[in-house]
Amino acid sequence: MTDAHADEAVAAEDGDRLAGVPDEFQRLWTPHRMAYINAGRESMREQCPFCEAPKHPDPERLIVARGETAFVLLNLFPYNSGHLLVCPYRHIATYDQATPDEVAEIGALTQTGMRVLREVSRCDGFNLGMNQGAVAGAGVDAHLHQHIVPRWSSDANFFPIIAKTKALPQLLGEVREAVAHAWPR
Questions:
Q1: Domains in the chain and their CATH numbers?
Q2: Active-site residue 145, yes or no?
Q3: N or C: which end of the chain has fewer CB within 10 A?
């Protein structure tokens, strides 16, 4: 075999490993998600998203309910459909900085959020939590927020575990509309 033919054989062999060539992995391409990811990165560099959200119309910032000291909005990067965040209006970083009124309202809004999600999405359970500080996993570590993540017995499958992919069956706007509509007034 000549050197030219050897180079062609290597190039053809390498082509089998290029992206787009079928292999044993299945891929769920969601390029539309980059708009959310890039928007989130840019806005967080300039301003706190949780301080900024209440200044805008509820549908625009995915707010589903407003209280006196705290509000509820959908997570822009949800773990599951209906993933809510409960945030105080005040820009505080940790739970121990919250006033008794803020603690009480965060708790009450969390309970209402659970009831509404149970009604709207018929979920089987919840994960509740606050990641306090970047080292603890908070994406927005400067502004306190509590997660309410609805869970279903069928939502733990191979996608997130093996493929590091989450399939979300509803658009954020649709979820926001359903939750806001069902929120008691």
A1: 32-182 (3.30.428.10)
A2: yes
A3: C
Nearest to 87 by CA among 134, 36, 51: 51
Kindly state the tokens that stand for 61: 């910032």
Two structure tokens written together for 168: 């979300």
Of the candidates 83, 143, 145, 147, the residue annotated as catalytic is 145
Q: What is the pTM of this model?
A: 0.72
Instruction: Classify the C-alpha dihedral 123-129-135-138 as positive or negative.
Output: positive
Q: What is the pLDDT of residues 71-93, one digit of tens each?
A: 999 998 888 899 999 999 999 99
Token readout for 122 is 């018929």
Judged against a pLDDT cut of 60, whether residue 130 lies above it is answered with yes
Three-state secondary structure of 98-139: CCHHHHHHHHHHHHHHHHHHHHHHCCCEEEEECCCCHHHCCC
